[in-house]
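Structure ticket #2291
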Amino acid sequence: AARALLLWRKNRYSAAVSVGSLVLERIIDILVFMLFFAMPILALPRLAKLAHLAWATVVFVALSAAALALCARHPGLILRLVDLLRHVTPKKFHHRISAIGTDLASVLDWTYSPRAVFAVLTLSLLVPLCYALSLMLLVGNFAAFGIYQGAFVTSFAVMGAAIPLAPGYVGTLHATVLQGYLLLGFDHHVGRAMAVLVHAVGYVPVTLVGFIYFLKADMSFREISHAKEALEE
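Resolution: structure written out below.
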């Protein structure tokens, strides 16, 4: 809600466009991180026992990408899908489902530009790839921990960050990152130490830079805390 409010305040995008762009960004991010989970499993012999999960993930990503492409060409499909979901979900979710469908349908015009599609896909891959590369540098042993291992642990870090159980991902992120390192053959001591480093490297710089730009954005903490209400108005 805060990000959508910022898009409206600084760029004057409508609420539908602001929220829709963020929802679509999150969908693309999820698909990319799912590939970061699947590709290392298919490439590293040590993870071969998870191959069935990797192939299931690849199929899901392919179907999801095809569905997004189809909806981009035929936006009306999103509204039909929304109507279908309304019939099979509890009534209390109907308004939210309708809102998300409308928001998504409003931000798919960029898919008609090959240049825009290429730019979005490239950046969506490069940004998380930077996290994987930073993990390689933290380990410092490229022979034992290469780009596939970095991508694999990054996917686990995202899983931990997505669990809404603790502020700042404390605990949840550490547990999932530790599990990623254990599956790669590292011991508990190394895994726990790396989990703390992964959290610090991914959280502290982003938070500090974000706070600097927050001060420049002419917004207050009060506006952030009431962002959802502001968008609804």
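Closing remark: The mean pLDDT is 83.
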